Amino acid sequence: GAGVSQTPSNKVTEKGKYVELRCDPISGHTALYWYRQSLGQGPEFLIYFQGTGAADDSGLPNDRFFAVRPEGSVSTLKIQRTERGDSAVYLCASSLRAPGLAGEDTQYFGPGTRLTVL
Amino acid sequence: EDKVVQSPLSLVVHEGDTVTLNCSYEVTNFRSLLWYKQEKKAPTFLFMLTSSGIEKKSGRLSSILDKKELFSILNITATQTGDSAVYLCVLNQAGTALIFGKGTTLSVSS
């Protein structure tokens, strides 16, 4: 597609439930990033994939959060036993190459998924 | 210990005004500083700055970086209501994670 797409656009769930958020990056982009944005804050890094592997998952807040990218394109962010504090907009971004390659690591963002945990 | 500090946090101006948004940062291994515009949900890329003193320009928007004093400014001239958004200053620090400032919320009234 022309840009990064994310589904669903909105997700409302109950505390304790499991959710999956999907990101479809720009075709050909090897790097994929997940961010979480709480109200009034800038996005916070969660995890970054280079190809199929998680190159840096240092931003994942705890072991309830997990992400996969099995074929090096689409990625799924999985949240187990959701808590009210998980409510946020989850943003996905992709870049042509991995960070470190000048001019080719500009990140382009998807529209985000607004997660609300009741 | 915020690494990227933006000011002001919010700004209200009238159409036609010129605004300057500020961003100061701390860095270990600087690669670039980015500006994004965020309306609704998705940040959209504006500029990438890597060198001091070289102005990047796109229409009514321009930005410049000072790597010695560790700050950047984003200027918008002849503001329009469509410029109303959150403007994010972002540090790319030779690693994987972009570090975002909290943003400046710009409101342009007609």
Topology:
The complex is a heterodimer of chains A (118) and B (110).
Chain A: E1 5-7, E2 10-13, E3 19-24, E4 31-37, E5 44-50, E6 53-56, E7 65-68, E8 75-79, E9 88-95, E10 108-109, E11 113-117
Parallel strand pairs in A: 2-11
Antiparallel strand pairs in A: 1-3, 3-8, 4-5, 4-9, 5-6, 7-8, 9-10, 9-11
Chain B: E1 4-7, E2 10-14, E3 19-25, E4 32-38, E5 43-49, E6 56-58, E7 61-66, E8 71-76, E9 85-92, E10 98-100, E11 104-109
Parallel strand pairs in B: 2-11
Antiparallel strand pairs in B: 1-3, 3-8, 4-5, 4-9, 6-7, 7-8, 9-10, 9-11
Give your account of this protein's structure:
The complex is a heterodimer of chains A (118) and B (110). Chain A has 118 residues and is an all-beta fold. In chain A, the strands form 2 sheets. In chain A, strands 2, 4, 5, 6, 9, 10 and 11 form a 7-stranded mixed beta sheet that branches. A 4-stranded antiparallel beta sheet of chain A has the order 1-3-8-7, with no helix packed on it. Chain A contains no helices and 11 strands. In chain A, a hairpin with a 2-residue loop joins strand 5 and strand 6 (53-56). Chain A has one domain: Immunoglobulins (Immunoglobulin-like), CATH 2.60.40.10. Chain B has 110 residues and is mostly beta strands. Chain B has one domain (4-105): Immunoglobulin-like (Sandwich), CATH 2.60.40. In chain B, 0% of the residues lie in helices and 56% in strands. Chain B is built from no helices and 11 strands. Chain A binds chain B through residues 4, 33, 35, 40-45, 48, 55-56, 58-59, 89, 91, 99-100, 102, 105-112, 114, and chain B through 4, 31, 34, 36, 40-45, 48, 50, 88, 90, 92, 94-103.
